[in-house]
Amino acid sequence: MVIKALSLYQDRTSLVHTIDPITKLVFILFSLSFPLILQNIYWSVGILIFCILLLLLGKVFKQTLPILGLSFILLLSILVIQGLYSPKNETLFFSVGFIRFYEEGLLVAVRIILRVTTLLCSVCILVLTTKPSDLIQSLMKKGLPAKIGYVLNSVMQIIPEMRSTMATISDAQRSRGIETEGKLITRIKAFFPLLGPVIMNALVSTRERSMALEVRGFNSTAKKSYLVEPTFSRIGFPLQIVMMVVLAGAIGWRIFQ
Amino acid sequence: MTSITVKSLSFYYKKEDPILTDISLTFDQRTTAIIGQNGAGKTTLVKLLKGLLKPASGEIWINDQDTRVVSVAKLAGYIGLVFQNPNDQIFKSKVIDEVMFGPLNVGQPKEEAITNSMNALLMVGMEDKKDDHPYDLSLSERKLISIASIIAMNTDIVIFDEPTIAQDYAGKETIKRVIHDLQKKGKWVITIIHDMDFVAETFARTIVLANGKILLDGTTREIFLQKDVLVQAGLNLPHVTQLGYLLEKNKTVLTIDEFIKDSKL
Ligand SMILES: Nc1ncnc2c1ncn2[C@@H]1O[C@H](COP(=O)(O)OP(=O)(O)O)[C@@H](O)[C@H]1O
Ligand SMILES: [Mg+2]
After folding, report:
1. B1 Cβ neighbours under 8 A, 6+ residues apart
2. How many CB pairs under 8 A join A and B?
3. 3.20.20.60, 3.40.640.10, 1.10.10.60, 3.40.50.300: which CATH number matches B4-234?
4. Which of A80, A252, B229, B236 is 20 to 30 A from B141 (CA-CA)?
């Protein structure tokens, strides 16, 4: 049985894919704090464009669109509410009939939108171009306890595994006359008999899993090694330094300005 | 009227990796074995017959019902499938409830469902386990329970996917008897199986699946005559048949009984 892993990871070959997860994490921090420190809307736009360029470079921009689209609806409402009702509103920007939009509120809204979109984009760079297991392994090397690493890893696996168990059990039940196709109500009715066996199955496999882990020395205190050592571009570390230096520079500039 | 018609059936899970290509096939009341290497697509084929998977092209008709349009639940009244892995099938917490689940769903009245279920358990020799929890039973016992729960549905067609897995000699004999009993009752029995001795002893017709196509189809004796073709398809012969060929008997022996009779002459 082929189990589709629960992850948004897109398997492509691109420069972005070769960068290590930690650098991408640092980039998320960077892309958020840099515009915050500079408080300049042009820089915010610049960083956002840079994120989008990275997504294009990583060949994953298309996968970002639905995520952005979903949040766009939310962000639109911020624009409307801030534009209409922000307490700072003074300067009329434009009006449609008796609905008046004010410049101050709109500006606040644009800032928020830029920040959220940048966050989404930079998180997408990480999530779409990094294998979850690589990310977790990198974090474990930086000191994340192995047990937490395991929990994170297994959550990625257990959910798709449960989904496939569900498909299997659903097949078994359809095979013996439970109607699962057709009207919505039929489908909902078919869902409940599924729950028992799926949970039962999960419990049984948890027991087996824990025995398998124990047998392989999961609780051993010896230093763990890794079966697969992913290789990343060596440019990652210098990039981290560059981002740190730029951030420090930005902070300095703000202080002495 | 029982009927199974497969017309130019093709199927894939992923487009670039076809599993079955242009298969046409009919079945009849002869007990039929489907053999082929691991991954040949045997399970896929029976899931298609059962309606669980839909053809990529071509069509399958079961008792004049088009599997592409009829729901699996409706087809369940005509065709029963015992899954390869009993754990994929069993989900009730009591054996008798498990066995009665199918019969009740296909519309048998309660009394009839109880009778059919007890008879089915008796047939596989599990009647004294009826109040046990299926998870407390061994794998081979669970397999027998899963067989009983399909037999109890009293369908015209019964398909077994690797029924002899994990069975000892007694279990295999039980399954052999079940297959013969079902056939005597007028059921059509189709079985996926890799135990060639069992094939030779049990089935009238054998179909060999290889590379997404039907490589051979005929009486079991005709099939085991094609020694070289079978070996090429990665299959071996029944042990007693191999022995027969090695001793240069000039005919295909299929069972130990045949071998002994032949030797006495
Ligand atoms: N759900 C699935 N998704 C994708 N590929 C599958 C799935 N099930 C089976 N396969 C593939 O289809 C091929 C045939 O499988 P199957 O019908 O189970 O073979 P058999 O029963 O003859 O051993 C195998 O290569 C298997 O890996
Ligand atoms: Mg199989």
Report:
1. B63, B64
2. 64
3. 3.40.50.300
4. B236
